[in-house]
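Hey, I was hoping to borrow your eyes for a little while. I've dropped the whole record in just underneath, so have a look:

——
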Amino acid sequence: MNPLLQRLHPYPFERLRELTASLTPNPALRPINLGIGEPRHPAPPLVMQAIDEAAAGLSVYPPTAGSPALRQACAGWLQRRYGVTVDPATQVLPVNGTREALFALAQVVVDPTRPGATVVCPNPFYQIYEGAALLAGARTAFANSDPARNFAADWRQIDDATWSRTQLLYVCSPGNPTGAVMPLSEWEELFALSDQHGFVIASDECYSEIYFGDEPPLGGLEAAVKLGRTDFRNLVALTSLSKRSNVPGLRAGFVAGDVRWMKAFLLYRTYHGSAMSPLVQQASIAAWGDEAHVEANRTLYRQKFAQVTPRLAEVLDVALPDAGFYLWAGVPRRHVEPGDDVAFALGLLAQYNVTVLPGSLLAREAHGVNPGAGRIRLALVAGVEECLEAADRIVAFTREHA
């Protein structure tokens, strides 16, 4: 057995299942799950129609690089969304969702034979970053979120010695779970560090189309162009249709960026056997080419967050995020043991049958603290009425234990 498997940590949802195994939720209330970030708005009909029309494609092997039409659709979306021009033939690759690609990219980038090979991650973070790093033979280093800056990662916590060993940096903007969006100045700092130390930046942007202000979130490729880095040196951006188009089961996205890394990634994927189904390719072309369903989806989230956030703010430390579909809420310090997010989540489930994810399960202790401790992640993915009912239960539970 691969010994690196022993280095993996249990996934947050597995840990939550273990914590709640002996717990009986209140049977008088229907269960409401705000723990999993799984979009539950309806999938757009145009995607379903494209799948139906592409059934004949199952009789052929799909190319790993994807069809020219799909790569062009992805490149076209980058141009319309970010004003970024890429070569569809050399700078774009379809992937089976960002989760698959985030993991695979580390296997391409990391050279475990180099002493101290390191992957830097934000903290809290999407757990795939850590698993990908460990299975690639690297160690991890974490930049904690900073509450004073809307929970953006504090990259300055990483010292020069660590940066010098870093081969890959994962960034997530808009962030999971905090919703923070990286400004251009932060990108400039990271690009300078990448130039100095030679590491690759993997920009996870799967929440980019759910935002609450007038200006859409800045993307990594867009930031590079604004800073004159039109070759996208050591930069790979990853995005997906899961959140944008409410099709998490489709497993469809793409990566784009530095020609050199796209070539290496394609070589890896050729052997890895990760070609996208022709049906999924046709559905993706339809989805990337349409913005009407994306705007409607964004409107639903805006309406939902506008109603739920102030209600929860009556009892929790919570505010509207920059983007994404999570609320990153602090539990009351006067509740159970100071800021105990796990106890809060267990009590809420037992008494009010609402599932939330304890923030400490999404983070690692780094720089002397666990930056997720005392907070909970709430995924507002269900309909407005269900989310409002959950909010009312959370308010009632919190006030009972004040």
Summary: The first strand starts at residue 32 and ends at 33. The mean pLDDT is 94. The two ends are 50 Å apart (CA to CA). The chain has two domains: 3-42+293-400, 47-290.
